[in-house]
Amino acid sequence: MKRLYIGTKIFLLSMCLLVATSCDKEFMAPFRDDPNNPLDVSNDLQLSGLLGNFSYSVLGSDPARIPSFWIQYTAFTGAPPSEDNYDVDESDVDNLWTYSSYTAVMQNAKLLNESATRQENYHYAAIAKLIWAWNMSVVTDLWGEVPYSEAWQPEKTLKPKYDPQESIYTAVQELLDGAIEDFNKTSVRSPAADDLLYPAANQNAWRNNSLPKWIKMAYTLKARFHMHLTNAPGYDPVEQSNLALIALQNGFASNADNALFQYYDAEGAENPWFQWAIDGKWNDDTRLSASYVARLQGLNDPRLPIQVQPTTNGTPQYNGAPNGVGNLDNNDISNIGNFYSDAEAPLQWLTYAEAKFIEAEARFRVSGAEAAQEAYQQAIVASMEDLGVDQEAANNYVEARPVLTATNALEEIIEQKYIALFLQFEAFNDFRRTGFPNDLQLAADALTPTIPVRFPYPQQELLNNAENVSQTNVPTGRNGLTLPVWWDRD
């Protein structure tokens, strides 16, 4: 099953973004006509479009959706082959790379950062740096070596070189450090309602209530990215864990800090999972994986009825589809729970529960299982509370979990984190770097010998930047899907 893309849906909130650009030199000319008097577009319009594009076209799109089949949150019930059978090629990822990440998000983040810095609107510049860093991390986590140092410079080159993933991770951390520095500056203007993630009635309210959350988010992301390198060549897992723990001291402190992007029941403004799986704008064949439903049932997990809808046949039950099979009756297969897939459901960007799971893993790596126990339990409770699970049910579930030991700690932490991060891209990163969950089976009629661990380089790059792509030594198309990225080498 190949997907048809509708451009207006990919950019549902980007109409307010007046600086969406391509890498075309002629298009960029107006921005270079007078370097002494650079053109400044209203930062509030830039910010709204940037956040909307990043949420829908990146965090709510292919980076979450395609790996959701591979790590068996979801399964495809339509006609195979599909992404569920690992049928992903160069054309499938063009939009994510070319139009979403490198243009609608990162190029516009760069422009917002430059414009806001010129105007001393440092809080806008800070958000731009944070989103730029985050999207850059997604791109390198999916593809490994990618353009960064020569990207977004069409006046110099239309064929930017591919930077090593290690150097990109350094740049991501530097961007986040720069964001934190800018957040702490006095800003001529600050966001308000144009901050679609943490909106406020006015600038003062934003500075008092939203600004602290953005700062905590930056530190929590730093912790996440430190942990990505626990198995990277030449990196010490204890040192990376200590860096994560230091960052978390200033990170998310409760569910009140959760970064949740709100959607609305209006044409083009609905939750992306609603559009992908429920409404049929793309298809309605993305359902729950039998593997995931069985996991929740086996654990007697009270999140089951929140994450999973009952079937719509004559005997409603929680029932998933085996991955890779396809051609199934959707009435017999559970859909994604309303908490995640209602038209008005917010999209989870980053949560306190994840911060506590990061802490639990880091403490285990530094000081052992006993040191991780409290953060591990707090992480589970935070996830349950976020989903509205009854407190008694949450406590009973935590008490039923085995005590962490040297032999089970990492598996227990990552399995529970996997459940808490339902439908999020970060779970795919955890699977690759830790190997957990370690009971995922190859999909039926799989087109690769093992579960994929990266995206193929996109068609536009193969056509327009082939020499630099070839220097990565990553096979093209499906042949490269099973080659780990740099930090995934253990």
From TrEMBL:
<keyword id="KW-0732">Signal</keyword>
<dbReference type="InterPro" id="IPR011990">
    <property type="entry name" value="TPR-like_helical_dom_sf"/>
</dbReference>
<dbReference type="InterPro" id="IPR041662">
    <property type="entry name" value="SusD-like_2"/>
</dbReference>
<feature type="signal peptide">
    <location>
        <begin position="1"/>
        <end position="19"/>
    </location>
</feature>
<protein>
    <submittedName>
        <fullName>SusD/RagB family nutrient-binding outer membrane lipoprotein</fullName>
    </submittedName>
</protein>
<keyword id="KW-0449">Lipoprotein</keyword>
<dbReference type="Pfam" id="PF12771">
    <property type="entry name" value="SusD-like_2"/>
</dbReference>
